[in-house]
Design a protein that fits this description.
single chain, alpha+beta, Glutaredoxin, 4-stranded antiparallel β-sheet
Length: 306
């Protein structure tokens, strides 16, 4: 008897033509913890850390809706010295903050909770600064989803060879079926459906502040409908900087949105974008998913320059 073919969620999504835009999870704050051992399937939650410190970091993260990611350098190359942690903040006006520190013992991670305080708080700790380059996070979390490892590791390797100081592999960031996925933080930009070649192009454009609609999942400070509207504007008018457009107005009527995307940079027009949503039939959306589920899809139904 022939065994059933192995299911890969990213292959299935490409065959179906699952829309990429509008799939970036919300996020403005990221906590990164370098962890050189094996990653549990549930990431930080599964780590065997000192309980009080682990709970303190988790509670502080929950208070500001921060995402906690485990990180390591690409290729599992052996790192020397203390492990690193970081707290990355992104603001809608383009202001960014990064705070980095090191840890040897579990108790050292308590500094993360202090780093989540406002920048002028007296207990702020670590190496901080707004002028640092962004961090490139590539999901390679195999225990969570096979496609993330199979498709993510070649991307992490290619990016790591080009920008070795910026690139980290990371645990689950959402949207397994869009592997390989890259998050640029604290810019708050998700890219998906990447391979080694397209990832180099996408990141090179991003670092030059010329974001293209190709491979763009969305901006993490926007709702899914707003992400789709901005991607449609970039597709219509061409690549633009991360903050060259802003969502000026959003009006919702059930499963329909009217969104004004305003050109902020000189010479850029504004657009009115109509977006509608619907649910797909139930499908297996992840490699390891036990149940079939539907996805909410947002699509542009009208776009007009104003």
């Amino acid at each position: 008897m022939t065994a059933p073919a192995r299911f890969f969620c990213a292959e299935a999504a490409r065959e179906r033509g699952d829309p990429l835009a509008g799939t970036a999870p919300y996020g403005a704050v990221w906590i990164l913890i370098e962890y050189r051992g094996g990653w549990p399937s549930n990431g930080y939650d599964g780590l065997d850390l000192e309980p009080a410190t682990k709970s303190r970091v988790y509670a502080a993260a929950q208070a500001v809706r921060a995402r906690i990611l485990l990180i390591r350098r690409p290729g599992r190359r052996r790192s020397e010295g203390p492990k690193r942690w970081a707290v990355l903040h992104g603001d809608r006006d383009g202001a960014h903050r990064q705070q980095w520190g090191t840890w040897n013992d579990d108790w050292d991670l308590a500094a993360i909770a202090q780093a989540l305080d406002p920048p002028d708080a007296p207990n702020a700790t670590g190496e901080a600064g707004p002028g640092r380059p962004p961090v490139l996070l590539v999901c390679t979390h195999g225990p969570h989803d096979t496609c993330c490892a199979v498709r993510g590791r070649p991307v992490a390797q290619a990016l790591g060879e080009r920008w070795p100081e910026l690139v980290w592999e990371c645990t689950h960031i959402g949207g397994d079926r869009f592997a390989a996925s890259v998050v640029v933080a604290p810019d708050g930009v998700y890219y998906g459906n990447l391979d080694a070649g397209t990832s180099l192009t996408a990141v090179e454009h991003h670092l030059a502040d010329r974001i293209h609609a190709n491979h763009l999942r969305g901006y993490t400070d926007l709702t899914p409908a707003q992400q789709v509207a901005v991607a449609a504007v970039l597709r219509e008018s061409g690549p633009a900087g991360r903050h060259d457009y802003a969502v000026e107005r959003t009006v919702r009527d059930n499963d329909r949105w009217l969104i004004r995307v305003a050109g902020i940079a000189p010479g850029l027009p504004s657009y009115d974008v109509e977006v509608t949503s619907h649910r797909t039939p139930a499908r297996q959306l992840t490699c390891h998913g036990r149940f079939r589920s539907s996805a909410l899809v947002h699509e542009v139904t009208a776009l007009r320059a104003v």
